[in-house]
Design brief:
Number of domains: 2
Radius of gyration: 22 Å
Largest sheet: 5 strands, mixed
CATH topology of the largest domain: D-Maltodextrin-Binding Protein, domain 2
Helix content: 40-55%
CATH class of the largest domain: Alpha Beta
CATH architecture of the largest domain: 3-Layer(aba) Sandwich
Structural class: alpha+beta
Strand order of the largest sheet: 5-4-6-16-9
Bound molecules: alpha-D-glucopyranose
CATH superfamily of the largest domain: Periplasmic binding protein-like II
Length: about 450
């Protein structure tokens, strides 16, 4: 992975032409691409996310429409939760609906969309426009967007789990740097929590995503891989689950202990904690440590944030003798096979992936752009320095299994990991059961 990134940086980046030329044709509603093809009409773009992200997309669309007079992009607002976003799209695609034309997909379910034949291959568009793909995170493109030799999507932003911490509180309690092991995190969290609780009864040492949903699988992957465990492995091209490995059971026991034994994470971790409640708890000054994605950085440092200027960010801790692990997340853009305006959808993709729009994402939303050239932009380095300094975290991020049945596999993992967190099953029982159901699932798919 590192090699690929280096090669890409050396290749450098060619300018990508994104804006179609001129406005011609009847009624001013058509424009032409650089290859002379007429673009016209409307596309529907489906996207979800935090409220500030939706607002930002509205601005991106307005800019696109300004650069392409007569053309319309309708924003179809989706939920924040990845599973709701997936189900909404699956509905439209199963019904072969021509809307939405273009949409964002979680890297976790891209494999399912490609295997289902729902995405328009982009190779012909890339070729026709001589579009430069070397600007993108090659390792991620090769892992997620390119399958069976065809390109189906492009990364808009790359996520990886990070540890946020309160720099002022670490200093106040005598710590010079963030924790490197999970045990150190517990010790620091307990001490800071005990001290802060005297003034603030709502204070917690460490907040993270434990509700039964996709985000819990992401957190679980991080504990498991930072203990030398794994969810499964490919053997002769077939994915084989290893969910109840001893390393995984130990990792899950630690997650349970954070809530029930060390008591540094709140009981609502397993009933309510998704990204936004976690972010808000930390941002309101009610936590010392937080596990979240890069987007939290911009919001923590916004003018109205009570923790502005008091936030540090570091790689997640690991278990002794192992390495830190961050789950690979992120969102990719692609065109529906059933779109009735694919040419315009491709023009929109090029705009979203242009240097200036990608730079805007990094500067204004704290997103880690799918284009690597943006990372070295001095303005980006000044505004979100960790995107560059933590580059290794992104390069080495651990993908969730890239299998067509990932959504079903995820449901199994979520259910049992959450049952253990809630104290309904022991980690061993939970993972034994998850392993059994995962084996059945794989059998169904491989016949
Ligand atoms: C973020 C990640 C995505 C992950 C989701 C879980 O949106 O980018 O990959 O599945 O969080 O909640």
């Amino acid at each position: 992975m590192k090699k690929a990134l280096l090669a890409m940086l050396l290749v450098g980046v060619l300018a990508v032409s994104v804006v179609a030329s001129g406005c011609i044709g009847g009624g001013g509603t058509t424009i032409s691409t650089q290859t002379g093809e007429k673009l016209q009409g409307k596309i529907v773009f489906a996207v979800g996310g935090a409220p500030n992200e939706i607002e930002y997309w509205k601005g991106v669309i307005a800019e696109f429409e300004k650069a392409h007079p007569g053309v319309k992009v309708e924003l179809k607002r989706q939920a924040t939760d990845t599973e709701q976003r997936r189900l909404d799209l699956v509905n439209a695609l199963r019904g072969k609906s021509s809307d939405p034309d273009v949409f964002l997909m979680d890297v976790a379910w891209l494999g399912q969309f490609i295997a289902s034949g729902w995405l328009e291959p982009l190779d012909d568009y890339v070729k026709k426009d001589n579009y430069n793909l070397s600007a993108f995170f090659q390792s991620v493109v090769n892992l997620a967007d390119r399958q069976n030799g065809k390109l189906y999507a492009l990364p808009v932003y790359i996520d990886a789990g990070l540890l946020y911490y309160r720099t002022d509180l670490l200093k106040k309690y005598g710590y010079s740097k963030p924790p490197e092991t999970w045990q150190q995190l517990v010790e620091m969290a307990q001490k800071i929590q005990a001290g802060e609780r005297k003034e603030n009864p709502n204070f917690w040492g460490f907040v993270w995503q434990g509700k039964q949903y996709e985000g819990l699988v992401c957190d679980f992957v991080e504990y498991v891989y930072s203990n030398g465990g794994s969810l499964g492995e490919f053997k002769d091209g077939k994915w084989v689950p290893t969910l109840n490995k001893p390393e995984n059971v130990q990792a899950l026991q630690f997650m349970v202990d954070l809530i029930h034994k060390y008591r540094v994470s709140p009981p609502n971790t397993y009933t309510e904690m998704t990204e936004e409640p976690v972010r808000l708890t930390f941002q309101q000054g009610n936590a010392a440590f937080e596990r979240n994605w890069p987007y939290a950085w911009g919001l923590h440092n916004a003018d109205d944030s009570p923790v502005k200027g008091k936030v540090g960010v570091a790689p997640l801790p690991h278990f002794p003798g192992h390495k830190s692990a961050a789950t690979l997340g992120g969102w990719h853009i692609g065109i529906s096979k059933y779109s009735d305006n694919k040419a315009l959808a491709w023009e929109f993709i090029k705009f979203v992936e242009s240097y200036s729009v990608q730079k805007g994402f990094a500067m204004n939303l704290g997103w880690n752009p799918g284009r690597v050239d943006v990372y070295d932009d001095p303005a980006v380095v000044a505004k979100a320095p960790h995107l560059k300094s933590l580059r290794k975290v992104f390069e080495n991020a651990v993908p969730r299994p890239v299998v067509p049945y990932y959504p079903q596999l995820s449901q199994i993992i979520q259910k049992y990991v959450n049952a253990a967190l809630a104290g309904k099953m022991s980690p061993q029982e939970a993972l034994d059961q998850a392993q059994k159901e995962a084996e059945d699932l794989v059998k169904q798919y491989s016949g």
